[in-house]
Amino acid sequence: MAIYQRVRDAxxxxxxxxxxxxxxxxxxxxxxxxxxxxxxxxRRDFLRRVGIAGGAGVMLHSMGALGLTSAHAAETPPFTxxxxxxxxxxxxxxxxxxxxxxxxxxxAYELLKGGYxxxxxEGRGRPGGRNWTVRGGDxxxxxxxxxQKATFSKGQYMNAGPGxxxxxxxxxxxxxxxxxxxxxxxxxxxxxxLYRENVPGALNGVPVxxxxxKADAYGYTAxxxxxxxxxxxxxxxxxxxxxxxxxxxxxxxxxxxNRVVGDPAASFKYNGGGRRGYDPQPGAGLxxxxxxxxxxxxxxxxxxxxxxxxxxxxxxxxxxxxQPVGGMDRIAYALAKAxxxxxxxxxxxxxxxxNTVDGVEVVYTTPxxxxxxxxxxxxxxxxPHIAAKIKSNLPAAIVSALGSVSVTxxxxxxxxxxxxxxxxxxxxYGGITxxxxxxxxxxxxxxxxHGDRGTMIGYYNTGANANxxxxxxxxxxxxxxxTQGKKIFGDVYGxxxxxxFSQDWASTPFSEGAxxxxxGAVGGQTGxxxxxxxxxxxxVYFAGDHLSHAIAWQxxxxxxxxxxxxxxxxxxxxx
Length: 575
Ligand code: PHE
Description:
It comes from Micromonospora echinospora (Micromonospora purpurea). This protein is an alpha/beta fold.
């Protein structure tokens, strides 16, 4: 979005206005396939001309438009990392980071750049918090005492928490900085399925390829809008020229027919077509392929399938999306490594913390006994509903702000199969099948294609569905998932299962939920409760995705941690 904005801004800048066209006319090379400016050939020349015409400011702006400056600087919240020389006469300050999840690790990592003395206290035996990748050999006991031992094969894994990263998130900047390789996460696949049951009409209980549902949804919408436009229903909103242009757009958008002169009903008809799929497919010689006939408009509307397509347009859910190669926890471990083992205390469960006259003290338990640590500052990155339960001398209003969040649950099951039936039988390579059953989402893995085994996320659900599965035992969860999955994929959903592991965030120690929201009743994210946590309370700072507008994203945790670091550092250096 921001890139297009910048391109537009650059094009609008008066100094270069008109230059683009003149420039194109003067021999700029357009790449033959992409139809875009071939920048490699022309950018120096272009910039030189812009520089001459508009001066350095315009030049910089145009460089942004051409993607030649750091896109990050323009697209993510600005952040200047600390430098070792920053502390100077202020002396070495000690910071206790409460929680070794993504916010805590980011805070520690950034503080270390400025020469702070940092200790991270983490209750778990590993870094990352909700960033958790489960592999064969991992053992886990939840708060209800249910123990699972994962038996995934070598190379197979499930991301029990975060699993996808949008392009504009600083999460990718940290991957780059820390050398964590990434690969595409397929968040949208035309050949994955949609499934709706308990709906009226012929599509009830019918698995539908996403491309078919989308072609029909777009096609019928375009047909109706084209008819209304052409028949004059929208004349008060459209000029005659607008109408022709809209009709042209709708013909392309919906793959609909042309105007049939004298026959409004037959005009702009959606009659299906190849974009929804073929049986048989186009092939050799005379095999032109036969498009699969469209669903009736009324059935399509009754199915609610069209409502799914807003998902892929979400700011943070639109392709391209990415994942670290080998599991999301590669980020957590890279941060932990950069912070350094000696500064990270695992199995350190915080039980009490206090502001003191000139610092903080934090009490925590370890397998070896109770310990106390003192520092100049603390950054509390614990989930707010957990922080609210911990003994402290924070003012009651702060504790009540922490406790005012509403907690959302989420659950996932990883199911390893001895063959990649989604690829072999359905030709689905990555992406998400979505259902209105308790499974909600099934993720076809975006790694290990064509391998001899693979691990599906057999469900990824939230709220009531997550609670439903969370109340079952792990074997019951698998059985239920298989029952539901068979409705869409048939018996293969239950065949050749070699391992499974299911995660319920509500019953997870140190998390007790998947993510939080700020209820409007207490002012939401503009209210005094939320705002009070953006400020330090004495020497205690707060950070976490819950203190961002990217809740339930690692990006939110990271940018919140950066802000806490900046604010703490500004205070130290102002003294
Ligand atoms: N980031 C999580 C996910 O992508 C949770 C989330 C879902 C956040 C949808 C926003 C929108 O699944």
